[in-house]
Amino acid sequence: MGKVIMVTGGARSGKSTFAEKKTNGIGQSISYIATAKAIDKDMSDRIEKHKASRPKGWHTFEMYQGFDHLLKDPHFINSDTFLLDCITIMITNIMFDQDLDYDTCSLEAIEKVEADIIKVINGLIGLMKEQEKNLIVVTNEVGYGLVPAYRLGNIFRDIAGRVNQYLAELSDEVYLVVSGIPVKIK
């Protein structure tokens, strides 16, 4: 049966590096699920650095939703372990896919967006467990930072915090990475 492992920590804490190393102990055939979209030059540069750091034999899926489509992909079928990096970027993408003005939208609209995000996560984890695949997910710990001064930042922080709690509950193992040092917390 597949295992779900969550890796969390602050920005530039070493989460992705630890998660990549963690795959070596649990999988033989690794695939990477990249959730970032190249929306500007800085993000394009970050994506390229992440690509360069990955082992060459790993297949990369560039997606942040619609994971049921993986069932038809031979790379999915032949992989036993998946590293998704990262949940918080996935949340951002799903939030911005909505046609919402986050400065003025209702609480009900925000709750629907969060429910949509949870649905995507449930679909991904359900798929991996059903197919007996291992899944390592990287996410940012958003609770240590400053309280955002604007509504969108608060909405994002609140959704990401609740999603991380939910994901930790569903995970078999959870690691917090601080200054490159992983600490197993579950």
From TrEMBL:
InterPro entries the record matches: CobU/CobP (IPR003203), P-loop_NTPase (IPR027417)
GO MF annotation, one: cobinamide phosphate guanylyltransferase activity
One protein family per Pfam: CobU
Keyword Transferase assigned: yes
Active site per UniProt: H50
Key words of the record: ATP-binding, Cobalamin biosynthesis, GTP-binding, Kinase, Nucleotide-binding, Nucleotidyltransferase, Transferase
BP-aspect Gene Ontology terms: cobalamin biosynthetic process
Enzyme class label: transferase
Known EC number: 2.7.1.156, 2.7.7.62
Binding site for GTP: 9-16, 34-36, 51-54, 62, 85
Annotated pathway: Cofactor biosynthesis; adenosylcobalamin biosynthesis; adenosylcobalamin from cob(II)yrinate a,c-diamide: step 5/7; Cofactor biosynthesis; adenosylcobalamin biosynthesis; adenosylcobalamin from cob(II)yrinate a,c-diamide: step 6/7
Similarity comment: family membership: Belongs to the CobU/CobP family.
Function, as annotated: Catalyzes ATP-dependent phosphorylation of adenosylcobinamide and addition of GMP to adenosylcobinamide phosphate.
Protein name (Swiss-Prot/TrEMBL): Adenosylcobinamide kinase
Organism: Natranaerovirga hydrolytica
